Q: What sequence folds into this?
């Protein structure tokens, strides 16, 4: 694969595209700042999606359109099918507030500047470089800006893509955040749920002895925190939010917790989900056994908030080997990793997929202090270009 990447770098059209990306590095950062300034909280990506659609048209992509859930599409090259899909998610974890970009020397700070302002800007620059330099492809390249990747978006955009059984690309490449070394080929699956306990409530003195939803919730939290997890494959189990109650002197009518379960293996994830269900059920039984005779029992409601499948693209697959070789070719050290990204969906369906950074470096992702520094920025986009072309050149890369 190193030889193939080397031969691609020697092609005149690829060399021209690389030079174009390096020459337009500053313009890519300006695009990054512009798209970051458009609020796009999960579920409300319309404004940013319209902006990206206009840019797709401006750079010269074909068949630009917005689908039923808000994903933005554009195509490059000729041929049938989706070919190589390059995706970047539109949404951020932040609410619909005005975004202010701050500059401090080489560092720019703004919520979403890296995740995923960088991915979107890199995708747009890659599309433009292909067109401006007339890069030859054997298969079409489909660009998609997806909705609902973050949090309770639950990979809504990616799920919509693959709900169409005719949509089966050769490979799927997600540009997600900054960086040029990580290669996310393992999909971290997740189950997210809310457990709500409800009871009669009452005065904290006069009604003392009725079943208390907060006590049941606390019992469940303590039991969840004590659960053992396998060290391999990696798994996590976290209570991430909790609430309920009306006043300091009132037994609550309701208490609730939200739980995030994650694992790299689907069977481990399913087992954890089942174990959490048992813990929640026991918390109700325990509190009801303690209540005063004749008082109403607690009720438990469990609501699913999201489900992301797990899986992996084999390190032996040409897609991953191309990622490794291309990472080395741009002067970085490849690091194989696991994460939860749009790539989870194709990976779970057996479609070769990967998520990678789009150049530069950053930090404080998902915080208002998120930052980006454009160190070796073009390398991340060149890497994506090389991988997209390499998997087309390798006959084993399909399906």
A:
């Amino acid at each position: 694969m190193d030889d193939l990447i080397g031969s691609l770098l020697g092609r005149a059209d690829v060399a021209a595209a690389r030079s174009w990306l390096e020459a337009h590095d500053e313009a890519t950062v300006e695009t990054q700042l512009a798209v970051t300034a458009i609020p796009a909280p999960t579920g409300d990506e319309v404004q940013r999606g319209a902006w990206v659609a206009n840019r797709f048209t401006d750079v010269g992509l074909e068949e630009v359109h917005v689908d039923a859930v808000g994903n933005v599409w554009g195509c490059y090259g000729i041929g049938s099918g989706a070919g190589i899909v390059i995706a970047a998610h539109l949404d951020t974890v932040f609410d619909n507030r005005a975004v202010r970009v701050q500059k401090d020397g080489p560092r720019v700070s703004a919520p979403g500047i890296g995740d995923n302002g960088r991915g979107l800007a890199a995708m747009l620059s890659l599309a433009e470089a292909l067109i401006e330099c007339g890069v030859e492809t054997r298969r079409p390249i489909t660009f998609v800006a997806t909705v609902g990747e973050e949090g309770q978006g639950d990979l809504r955009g990616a799920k919509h893509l693959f709900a169409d059984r005719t949509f089966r690309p050769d490979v799927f490449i997600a540009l997600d955040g900054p960086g040029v070394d990580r290669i996310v080929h393992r999909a971290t699956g997740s189950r997210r749920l809310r457990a709500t306990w409800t009871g009669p409530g009452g005065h904290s003195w006069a009604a003392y002895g009725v079943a208390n939803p907060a006590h049941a919730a606390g019992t469940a939290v303590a039991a969840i925190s004590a659960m053992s997890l396998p060290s391999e494959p990696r798994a996590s189990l976290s209570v991430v939010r909790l609430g309920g109650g009306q006043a300091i002197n009132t037994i609550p009518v309701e208490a609730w917790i939200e739980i995030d379960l994650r694992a790299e293996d689907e069977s481990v994830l399913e087992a954890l989900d089942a174990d959490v269900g048992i813990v929640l059920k026991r918390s109700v039984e325990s509190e009801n056994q303690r209540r005063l005779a004749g008082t109403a029992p607690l009720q438990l409601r469990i609501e699913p908030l999201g489900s992301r499948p797990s899986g992996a693209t084999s390190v032996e697959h040409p897609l991953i080997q191309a990622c490794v070789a291309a990472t080395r070719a741009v002067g970085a050290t490849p690091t194989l990793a696991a994460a939860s990204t749009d790539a989870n969906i194709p990976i779970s369906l057996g479609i070769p997929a990967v998520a990678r950074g789009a150049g530069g470096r950053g930090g404080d992702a998902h915080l208002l202090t998120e930052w980006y520094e454009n160190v070796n920025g073009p390398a991340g986009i060149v890497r994506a270009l090389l991988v997209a072309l390499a998997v087309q050149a390798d006959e084993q890369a399909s399906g």
Summary: The radius of gyration is 24 Å. The longest strand covers residues 189-198. The chain has two domains: 2-188+310-397, 189-308.
